[in-house]
Amino acid sequence: MQNTIPLTLAAAVRRDPANPLLTFYDDASGDRTELSGATLDNWVSKTANLLVDGLGLGSGDTAAVTMPPHWQTAAILLGIWSAGVEAATTDPQSADVLFSTPDQSTTTKASDRYATGLLPFAMPLRELPAGFADFVLEVRQFGDYFPGAPVTEADLALNGRTHAETLAAANGRAAELGITPGRRVLFDATTHPDPVDWLLAPLLAGASIVLCAHLDRTKLDSRAESEKVTLVVG
Protein backbone atom coordinates (compact mmCIF):
# COMPACT_ATOMS: atom_id res chain seq x y z
CA MET A 1 0.00 0.00 0.00
CA GLN A 2 1.48 3.32 -1.08
CA ASN A 3 1.75 5.98 1.61
CA THR A 4 1.32 9.33 -0.17
CA ILE A 5 -0.13 12.73 0.64
CA PRO A 6 -2.83 12.55 -2.09
CA LEU A 7 -4.06 9.27 -0.61
CA THR A 8 -4.05 10.86 2.86
CA LEU A 9 -6.17 13.75 1.59
CA ALA A 10 -8.54 11.38 -0.23
CA ALA A 11 -9.07 9.41 2.99
CA ALA A 12 -9.75 12.60 4.96
CA VAL A 13 -12.31 13.80 2.41
CA ARG A 14 -13.93 10.37 2.17
CA ARG A 15 -14.43 10.19 5.96
CA ASP A 16 -16.71 13.23 6.02
CA PRO A 17 -16.94 15.28 2.80
CA ALA A 18 -19.64 17.67 4.03
CA ASN A 19 -18.41 18.78 7.45
CA PRO A 20 -15.67 21.38 7.99
CA LEU A 21 -12.19 20.01 7.39
CA LEU A 22 -10.35 23.33 7.58
CA THR A 23 -11.65 26.54 9.15
CA PHE A 24 -9.47 29.62 8.81
CA TYR A 25 -9.50 32.80 10.91
CA ASP A 26 -7.50 36.00 10.48
CA ASP A 27 -7.97 38.23 13.49
CA ALA A 28 -6.25 41.13 11.71
CA SER A 29 -8.73 41.24 8.81
CA GLY A 30 -11.74 39.61 10.48
CA ASP A 31 -11.80 36.87 7.85
CA ARG A 32 -13.40 33.51 8.61
CA THR A 33 -13.41 30.89 5.86
CA GLU A 34 -14.80 27.40 6.36
CA LEU A 35 -14.00 24.62 3.91
CA SER A 36 -15.63 21.21 3.93
CA GLY A 37 -13.59 18.27 2.74
CA ALA A 38 -15.34 18.45 -0.63
CA THR A 39 -14.72 22.19 -1.03
CA LEU A 40 -11.04 21.93 -0.09
CA ASP A 41 -10.70 19.02 -2.50
CA ASN A 42 -12.15 21.19 -5.30
CA TRP A 43 -9.50 23.87 -4.71
CA VAL A 44 -6.82 21.19 -4.57
CA SER A 45 -8.02 19.72 -7.87
CA LYS A 46 -8.07 23.13 -9.54
CA THR A 47 -4.50 23.78 -8.38
CA ALA A 48 -3.30 20.36 -9.57
CA ASN A 49 -4.97 20.92 -12.94
CA LEU A 50 -3.29 24.33 -13.22
CA LEU A 51 0.10 22.70 -12.62
CA VAL A 52 -0.39 19.67 -14.89
CA ASP A 53 -2.64 20.94 -17.69
CA GLY A 54 -1.76 24.62 -17.49
CA LEU A 55 2.00 24.42 -16.94
CA GLY A 56 2.88 20.87 -17.95
CA LEU A 57 4.55 20.06 -14.62
CA GLY A 58 4.81 16.69 -12.92
CA SER A 59 7.23 14.32 -11.25
CA GLY A 60 10.72 15.81 -10.99
CA ASP A 61 9.49 19.41 -10.96
CA THR A 62 9.45 21.76 -7.98
CA ALA A 63 6.97 24.42 -6.85
CA ALA A 64 8.10 27.05 -4.39
CA VAL A 65 5.55 28.20 -1.81
CA THR A 66 6.54 31.31 0.14
CA MET A 67 3.22 31.90 1.88
CA PRO A 68 2.16 31.91 5.53
CA PRO A 69 -0.30 29.33 6.92
CA HIS A 70 -3.66 29.99 5.27
CA TRP A 71 -6.45 27.97 3.66
CA GLN A 72 -5.13 28.97 0.21
CA THR A 73 -1.67 27.77 1.24
CA ALA A 74 -3.23 24.43 2.19
CA ALA A 75 -4.98 24.15 -1.18
CA ILE A 76 -1.81 25.06 -3.08
CA LEU A 77 0.42 22.64 -1.17
CA LEU A 78 -2.06 19.78 -1.48
CA GLY A 79 -2.51 20.57 -5.17
CA ILE A 80 1.25 20.48 -5.68
CA TRP A 81 1.49 17.08 -4.01
CA SER A 82 -1.51 15.75 -5.92
CA ALA A 83 0.22 16.73 -9.16
CA GLY A 84 3.33 14.75 -8.18
CA VAL A 85 5.36 17.94 -7.83
CA GLU A 86 7.73 18.65 -4.94
CA ALA A 87 6.97 21.65 -2.71
CA ALA A 88 9.84 23.87 -1.62
CA THR A 89 9.14 26.16 1.31
CA THR A 90 12.72 26.81 2.43
CA ASP A 91 14.74 27.19 -0.80
CA PRO A 92 12.72 28.57 -3.75
CA GLN A 93 15.65 29.49 -5.98
CA SER A 94 15.59 26.45 -8.28
CA ALA A 95 11.79 26.04 -8.46
CA ASP A 96 9.86 25.67 -11.72
CA VAL A 97 6.89 27.71 -10.46
CA LEU A 98 6.42 30.13 -7.57
CA PHE A 99 3.39 30.79 -5.37
CA SER A 100 3.82 33.88 -3.23
CA THR A 101 2.20 36.86 -1.56
CA PRO A 102 2.88 40.24 -3.17
CA ASP A 103 4.96 41.46 -0.23
CA GLN A 104 7.49 38.64 -0.58
CA SER A 105 10.91 39.31 -2.10
CA THR A 106 11.92 35.90 -3.45
CA THR A 107 14.84 34.90 -5.63
CA THR A 108 13.82 32.15 -8.06
CA LYS A 109 14.49 31.03 -11.60
CA ALA A 110 10.80 30.22 -12.09
CA SER A 111 9.28 31.90 -15.11
CA ASP A 112 5.74 31.06 -13.94
CA ARG A 113 4.85 33.08 -10.86
CA TYR A 114 1.52 33.37 -9.04
CA ALA A 115 0.64 35.90 -6.36
CA THR A 116 -2.30 35.98 -3.97
CA GLY A 117 -3.23 38.57 -1.40
CA LEU A 118 -4.86 35.92 0.84
CA LEU A 119 -7.91 38.17 0.87
CA PRO A 120 -11.34 37.32 2.34
CA PHE A 121 -13.66 35.44 -0.04
CA ALA A 122 -10.64 34.64 -2.25
CA MET A 123 -10.84 38.11 -3.78
CA PRO A 124 -8.29 38.96 -6.51
CA LEU A 125 -5.52 41.47 -6.04
CA ARG A 126 -6.14 45.06 -7.07
CA GLU A 127 -2.54 45.45 -8.18
CA LEU A 128 -0.28 42.63 -9.32
CA PRO A 129 3.50 42.65 -8.92
CA ALA A 130 5.31 42.78 -12.24
CA GLY A 131 5.81 39.32 -13.72
CA PHE A 132 3.08 37.64 -11.64
CA ALA A 133 -0.34 36.20 -12.46
CA ASP A 134 -3.18 36.33 -9.93
CA PHE A 135 -3.55 32.83 -8.47
CA VAL A 136 -7.23 33.08 -7.53
CA LEU A 137 -8.19 34.30 -11.01
CA GLU A 138 -6.04 31.79 -12.87
CA VAL A 139 -6.95 28.72 -10.81
CA ARG A 140 -10.68 29.27 -11.25
CA GLN A 141 -10.31 28.52 -14.97
CA PHE A 142 -9.47 24.89 -14.19
CA GLY A 143 -11.74 21.97 -13.38
CA ASP A 144 -12.93 20.82 -9.96
CA TYR A 145 -11.90 17.23 -10.69
CA PHE A 146 -8.32 16.05 -11.00
CA PRO A 147 -7.91 12.49 -12.29
CA GLY A 148 -4.75 11.96 -10.29
CA ALA A 149 -1.08 11.63 -11.07
CA PRO A 150 1.22 8.60 -10.64
CA VAL A 151 2.53 9.64 -7.21
CA THR A 152 4.54 7.13 -5.19
CA GLU A 153 5.79 7.20 -1.63
CA ALA A 154 9.36 7.47 -2.97
CA ASP A 155 8.63 10.70 -4.87
CA LEU A 156 9.90 13.94 -3.37
CA ALA A 157 7.20 15.87 -1.50
CA LEU A 158 8.57 18.61 0.76
CA ASN A 159 12.01 20.20 0.96
CA GLY A 160 13.89 17.11 -0.21
CA ARG A 161 11.85 14.59 1.79
CA THR A 162 9.79 11.89 0.09
CA HIS A 163 6.07 11.39 0.61
CA ALA A 164 6.80 8.50 2.96
CA GLU A 165 9.33 10.55 4.95
CA THR A 166 7.05 13.60 5.11
CA LEU A 167 4.09 11.55 6.33
CA ALA A 168 6.28 9.78 8.88
CA ALA A 169 7.27 13.20 10.20
CA ALA A 170 3.59 14.22 10.29
CA ASN A 171 2.69 11.04 12.17
CA GLY A 172 5.39 11.78 14.71
CA ARG A 173 4.21 15.35 15.15
CA ALA A 174 0.61 14.21 15.59
CA ALA A 175 1.72 11.96 18.43
CA GLU A 176 3.82 14.72 20.02
CA LEU A 177 1.00 17.28 19.80
CA GLY A 178 -1.70 14.89 20.99
CA ILE A 179 -3.70 14.91 17.75
CA THR A 180 -5.96 11.87 17.54
CA PRO A 181 -8.86 10.82 15.27
CA GLY A 182 -12.00 12.93 15.48
CA ARG A 183 -10.40 15.84 17.29
CA ARG A 184 -10.96 19.43 16.19
CA VAL A 185 -7.60 21.10 16.58
CA LEU A 186 -6.94 24.84 16.84
CA PHE A 187 -3.52 26.02 15.65
CA ASP A 188 -1.85 29.38 16.22
CA ALA A 189 -0.34 29.98 12.76
CA THR A 190 2.44 32.11 14.23
CA THR A 191 3.81 29.43 16.53
CA HIS A 192 3.19 26.50 14.15
CA PRO A 193 4.09 27.71 10.63
CA ASP A 194 5.32 24.29 9.43
CA PRO A 195 2.70 22.60 7.20
CA VAL A 196 3.77 19.26 8.65
CA ASP A 197 2.23 20.51 11.92
CA TRP A 198 -0.85 22.53 10.97
CA LEU A 199 -1.86 20.66 7.80
CA LEU A 200 -0.44 17.16 7.43
CA ALA A 201 -0.43 15.97 11.05
CA PRO A 202 -4.19 16.53 11.55
CA LEU A 203 -5.08 15.23 8.07
CA LEU A 204 -3.12 12.05 8.69
CA ALA A 205 -4.53 11.63 12.19
CA GLY A 206 -8.14 12.04 11.06
CA ALA A 207 -8.70 15.39 12.78
CA SER A 208 -10.16 18.67 11.51
CA ILE A 209 -8.33 22.00 11.59
CA VAL A 210 -9.07 25.47 12.95
CA LEU A 211 -6.17 27.63 11.75
CA CYS A 212 -5.79 31.09 13.28
CA ALA A 213 -3.60 33.83 11.82
CA HIS A 214 -2.78 36.93 13.91
CA LEU A 215 -4.51 35.18 16.78
CA ASP A 216 -6.15 37.47 19.34
CA ARG A 217 -5.72 35.39 22.46
CA THR A 218 -8.51 37.23 24.25
CA LYS A 219 -10.85 35.46 21.80
CA LEU A 220 -9.32 32.03 22.27
CA ASP A 221 -11.80 30.60 24.79
CA SER A 222 -14.91 31.81 22.96
CA ARG A 223 -13.55 30.62 19.62
CA ALA A 224 -12.68 27.21 20.99
CA GLU A 225 -16.23 26.94 22.32
CA SER A 226 -17.95 28.17 19.14
CA GLU A 227 -15.84 25.94 16.89
CA LYS A 228 -16.20 22.91 19.19
CA VAL A 229 -12.40 22.69 19.48
CA THR A 230 -11.16 19.72 21.49
CA LEU A 231 -7.43 20.53 21.37
CA VAL A 232 -5.58 23.86 21.29
CA VAL A 233 -2.05 23.77 19.93
CA GLY A 234 -0.77 27.22 20.81
UniProtKB/TrEMBL annotation:
InterPro entries the UniProt entry points to:
AMP-dep_synth/lig_dom, ANL_N_sf, Rv3268
Protein's name in the database: TIGR03089 family protein
Q: What is the lineage of its organism?
A: Bacteria, Bacillati, Actinomycetota, Actinomycetes, Micromonosporales
Which Pfam families would you find in this protein's record?
A: AMP-binding
Domain AMP-dependent synthetase/ligase: from-to ranges: 11-94
